[in-house]
Design a protein that fits this description.
By secondary structure, the protein is mostly helical. It has two domains: 81 residues, Arc Repressor Mutant, subunit A; 82 residues. The chain is 71% helix and 7% strand. The chain is built from seven helices and three strands; from the N terminus they run ααβααββααα. The protein has a three-stranded antiparallel beta sheet with strand order 1-3-2. α1 crosses α2 and α3 packs across α4. The N and C termini lie far apart (49 Å).
């Protein structure tokens, strides 16, 4: 696949963004390439286009499949797997948010519950217990909100986002 300068910049920026989010730079670049590719690509095409080692691409594809950001398929009579990214940006955002929620947010809430429970039975000062409870309650409130909104049909979610942006313009700032 021949990349234009703009395509190269997109892939490089996506890699930088991924690194800031804790994702390996080359994994993010593989995802970026698949996201903008007009057709599914096999691992060799990805290696050739990005100049990455085959082992690096294989590992990156497995990670992206684990995140449910990339799917593989095979054409009849062809031994090679081809890979494609989730193309719809709304779906892509949803997959990323849900993945981060499951891997990071939910375990943190569970850990906070355990810590708060343990603090009730030891010499943790009351002001620290109160801060732990406030942290747990706030994170739980955000998670409850997310679960409620994510259960709505896509059209309703989009409408709520647009409405929220309009409402925010009329609310006091700061």
């Amino acid at each position: 696949m021949l990349l234009t300068p703009a395509m190269q910049d997109f892939i490089l920026h996506w890699g930088e963004m991924g690194a800031k989010w804790g994702v390996n730079r080359s994994v993010a670049q593989i995802h970026a390439l698949l996201h903008i590719a007009p057709d599914p690509l096999d691992a060799e095409e990805i290696c050739d286009t990005l100049g990455l080692a085959r082992s690096n691409v294989s590992t990156g594809l497995k990670e992206l499949q684990g995140w449910k950001l990339v799917k593989s398929s095979r054409a009849l009579g062809d031994r090679r797997d081809v890979f494609i990214s989730v193309q719809d940006m709304f779906d892509l955002s949803r997959v990323v948010i849900e993945g981060r929620r499951e891997r990071e947010f939910v375990p943190t809430i569970a850990a906070l519950r355990e810590v708060a429970k343990a603090a009730e039975g030891d010499a943790t000062p009351d002001h620290v217990k109160a801060r732990m409870q406030e942290t747990l309650q706030t994170m739980q409130m955000f998670d409850d909100w997310y679960r409620d909104v994510s259960g709505l049909p896509r059209g309703v979610q989009l409408l709520a986002m647009k409405l929220g942006a309009k409402i925010a313009r009329f609310l006091p700032k700061g």
